[in-house]
Write the structure tokens for this entry.
Amino acid sequence: MTEINEKELEKASGGTVYKVGWNDICANFELRYSSDVSQTCSNCKHFHAIGGGSGRCANKAE
Amino acid sequence: MKYILNENIALRSWRLVPFAYYIKGVRRAQKLSAGDFLLLLSCDGKTEQDPEQDCIRRFSELGLIRPAKSGETLSDWQKARFCDNRYMPGVNWSITGKCNYNCKHCFMARDNEKMMKEFSWEEMLAALDEFDKCGIQTIELTGGEPMLHPHFMDLVREISRRGMDIDVILTNGAFLTPEILREIKALGFNPLFKISFDGLTHHDWMRGVEGAEQKTLEAIDMCVAEGARTGVQICIHKYNLDTLFDTVKLIAEKGVKWIRVIRTSESPRWAENAPDASLGIEEYYDVSIDILTRYAKTGLKAELILWQFADYYPSCSGYRFVPVDCSGDRERDMRRPTCVGARGSMAISSEGQVSPCNQMSGYFSKNGFDIGNIKNGVQPLLQESRYMDTITLSCGKVGENKLCSVCKYFGYCLGGCRAIALAFTNDFLAADPSKCVFYSKGYYQKARKAFDKAGEECGRKFVCVTPIEEFEKEMLL
């Protein structure tokens, strides 16, 4: 694992690195609960609609 | 050795999600640790790396990076973008309010001049600049009829040039040609074409144009023949039930992958054009059970979605109840947004107004609700804004209403669909009455029994992928 070099990150981002107000849980939360209404499962390519639901692939029922 | 990101990988950073990447064709971003992000930043074709490093090996195996050829550099799309806004992966963009059809239920019909606004080419380019700046990757194009926009294909080409993706095109199919389908494919897109078709012998009436049925069926055939991902949406009401099953069966036999049946709701225009034609919630559920179970017995391969009730997946003979699965997972985190669809896709009207979803846009427009307009900038909407407050409204907040707060099924439905709640109650925070009916009138049990019976009749077993333990025990007694 590469050590976090904050200065390098700041340089790459032009000084816009969001160190305040986030943590691991925040990132997971934002990504997890930002699904679309319809998508293809990236694992099994099974097409499914989630219509306000989970994004869980029904193929997992097998 | 120098490494470079694979062509389908782009690095992104947002408020609250500072280290992530997109895979082209996958809507949601993938999270990275800060260390991994930093390493991938240096996979730019210029920086020397030790090929023996664990993470270099790991990223190569994952398909994120590869050794760079001499002089190779990252495309603009791939380069890390640090977005000073919250994460939003996609937009559902009505580029025009104009339509060549005159549908009885749609507020963007041909004779509704008020809704005829559309984005100019300059406004489209400005919007794409904003999407780019905010790290929005995926665009769903809708209308009106989006292909009626004079710059439709220019827009598709521009989206491709910027490395963004189009994952859905909602259309009535009237302007589809094999040449257009081929060009869209050649530009690197594989969108789902969601084509509206409202039933054999009924489509012309619903669309207000003679010959629409024939034209739409031809468009569906063309999409399938060209290998495009093809889906069909059917609006149902009391007048088209007689051919509903035959319609679903015919469409599935054509090789369509996805069929969605939607209850035509009580929009003002629909009430005016077809009073008393809407199905009540119970009627809709009864029809849904009948269609789903008859369809499941056919063995046809298209997925069948009965909007906000249940989905049937032929690939695993499984079915899912939407009112049970709104929670998505069993953790039932009450901080989560009430609709993940709204949270993950910004609905934009032909005037640029934003709303949580297109189902609500008509209501917002009619009642003068204004939670933002992208023509004033997208980034402010994704920072601290009324729009962001609306789409991140938590389930816990909805659960405070008087019905949900005492309902033992709230953990499953989480108050239900906000668009339905709003349409029926005029209250954005109210319980969705269609979910209340599902539980109070025993529709879980009715549908389970109907699927079991259908399974016995055709010698197969249909699996409920959203079981509720309490009901399962009850049914065994």
